[in-house]
Amino acid sequence: MAETATHTGTQAAVRAQDLHREYGRGTAAVRALRGVSVELAPGTFTAVMGPSGSGKTTLLHCLAGMDRPTRGSVRWGDTEVSRLPERRLAELRRGRVGFVFQAFNLMPAMTVEQNVELPGRLAGERPGRDRVRDALARVGLAGRERSRPGQLSGGQQQRVAVARALVSRPEVLFADEPTGALDRATGREILDLLRAGVDQEGQTCVMVTHDPVAAAYADRVLLLADGLLVDELVRPTAAQVGERLSRLDG
Ligand SMILES: Nc1ncnc2c1ncn2[C@@H]1O[C@H](COP(=O)(O)OP(=O)(O)OP(=O)(O)O)[C@@H](O)[C@H]1O
Ligand SMILES: [Mg+2]
User: Which ligand 1 atom sits closest to the C-alpha of 227?
Assistant: First the structure.
């Protein structure tokens, strides 16, 4: 009887319950999320899809502790994060969460290596050079440590951003349209990388995408519409995703 559900190893990496997020007040208020509950099992890859403005980025930011829900809760393992004081949240986020953006968000004047080190430095940590090099090797950029972002292709720049997100060895990697600025073939390299992280390292990954082919890399696809979770597909093909999306749009 001493055993509890939290010690069975099946605990969610991230669990959100009844998330609401409103921007603004009164008649100008936008209800970006209107009661979304999701659980992300450790070592799984989830895609989030839905029409523009449906709340995908808002959901990702709330799950990643980068935005606070107006109502509802977000837990990382045992920790309720949505109401932690900002300092504590920032500290926890650095250790547990990585984030990749559509627009790479690299510092152009810094080298690849410095970009990957930057979050640790901002946190006042002494970033281990080996860790940085490991992260770059993992994304196939060994030897490019001294390059500047402007000397790399778009796909390579996004790989630097993935390395930057992974260098702290986060439990969960969030990616908001990570292939949105890339062509199909280059996007596929990034998707292979995310998939390999899940399969080989047990990484938990959540990715927003508009592309059914990208979504088909995930184990599960969540569909948002108008701030609500409206559907879920398990291990779908790209064709199944496309078909379901066109029903949402139509
Ligand atoms: N900071 C903000 N202030 C006011 N409204 C916001 C803010 N951020 C998002 N919204 C609104 O919330 C709704 C959901 O936005 P969100 O960015 O989550 O959509 P999305 O599904 O990511 O869309 P897209 O596919 O275009 O990126 C939209 O109506 C948007 O205008
Ligand atoms: Mg968005």
Answer: 14
Type and span of the H or E element at 180: none
User: Is residue 176 a contact partner of residue 155, using CB atoms and an 8 Å limit?
Assistant: no
Q: pLDDT (tens digit, 0 to 9) for every residue of the chain, 250 residues total?
A: 333 334 445 689 999 999 999 999 888 899 999 999 999 999 999 999 999 999 999 999 999 999 999 999 999 999 999 889 999 999 899 889 999 999 989 999 999 999 999 988 887 887 688 889 999 998 999 999 999 999 999 999 999 999 999 988 899 999 999 999 889 988 999 999 999 999 999 999 999 999 999 999 999 999 999 999 999 999 999 999 999 999 887 6
Pocket test for ligand 1, best of 34, 54, 211 (most atoms within 8 A of CB): 54
Is 206 within 8 Å of 173 (Cβ atoms)?
A: yes
Q: Which atom of ligand 1 is nearest to the CA of 55?
A: 18
Task: Give the span between the Cα atoms of 190 and 186, in whole angstroms.
Answer: 7
Helices (H), 106-233: 112-122, 129-138, 154-166, 184-201, 212-215
What is the whole-number distance in angstroms between the Cα of residue 63 and the centre of ligand 1?
15
The whole-angstrom separation of Cα 63 and Cα 174 is 9
- For tokens 């995908």, the residue is 56
The closest residue, in CA terms, to atom 31 on ligand 1 is 53
Residue type, position 175, single letter: A
Rounded distance from Cα 127 to ligand 1 centre (Å): 34
Tokens of 95: 């250790």
Q: Is 137 in the pocket of ligand 1 (CB under 6 A)?
A: no
